[in-house]
Design a protein that fits this description.
The chain is built from 2 helices and 11 strands, in the order αββββββαβββββ. The protein has 199 residues and is of the alpha+beta class. The protein is elongated. The N and C termini lie far apart (54 Å). Pfam families: YceI (PF04264). Keywords: Signal.
Length: 199
């Protein structure tokens, strides 16, 4: 009888230990990636396009949000997502901004957002090469972003990470009105500087 109780107690202890080790292992895997929210105050999404092929028009989007998940041990598990509200376009000229919101340009009522969602991530020297789906004006194309940066800094108790990238896009690849391509060049250069705050 005593031996039976001792065996039962020993089995219960072993089971508890196994469950504790298993739970601990799962917790470690879940916390491997660090989560960050896009910091609108210290970030920017700007662009420039040729005017009459003699000068550049500069602009930016003021309403942007995003999330980063960075797995430094297994970078392929990292993810990046960005959402831009098209009606927040700002070229420092109210009349031009209103025109850019119309159907012959961004058509902001029908296409209120520009989005990027990563599909694969690999580390490179000084950052990450990120492939993903870029959706603008109702058309999705796969693009590759070279994100430079990624060092984490602890400032006033908040951990931050930052990246920067530049890309070249053609409006004709995203179904923009061909009649609106001419005075304003087809190609636009987009500059993204984003800072994330760790959750």
């Amino acid at each position: 009888m005593i031996q039976s109780l001792f065996s039962h107690h020993l089995f219960a202890c072993a089971l508890t230990l196994i469950l504790a080790v298993s739970f601990s292992g799962n917790t470690t895997r879940c916390s491997a990636a660090d989560e960050y929210d896009y910091d609108l105050v210290h970030s920017s999404v700007s662009f420039k396009a040729r005017h009459l092929d003699i000068s550049w028009i500069h602009g930016r989007f003021n309403d942007v949000s995003g999330k980063f998940s960075i797995d430094r041990e297994t970078p392929a598990n990292s993810t990046f997502a960005l959402t831009i509200k098209t009606d927040s376009v700002d070229t420092a000229n109210a009349a031009r901004d209103e025109h850019l919101r119309q159907p012959d340009y961004f058509d902001t009522k029908q296409f209120p957002t520009i989005t990027f969602r990563s599909t694969s991530v690999k580390p490179i020297d000084g950052g990450y090469e990120v492939q993903g789906d870029f959706t603008m004006h109702g058309t999705t194309n796969e693009i590759t972003l070279v994100l430079m940066g990624g060092k984490e800094h602890d400032i006033m108790g908040k951990k931050r990470v930052a990246f920067s990238t530049e890309l070249s896009l053609k409006r004709s690849d995203y179904g923009f009105d061909k009649n609106a391509i001419g005075p304003i060049g087809d190609k636009a250069l987009v500059m993204i500087d984003c800072e994330g705050v760790k959750k």
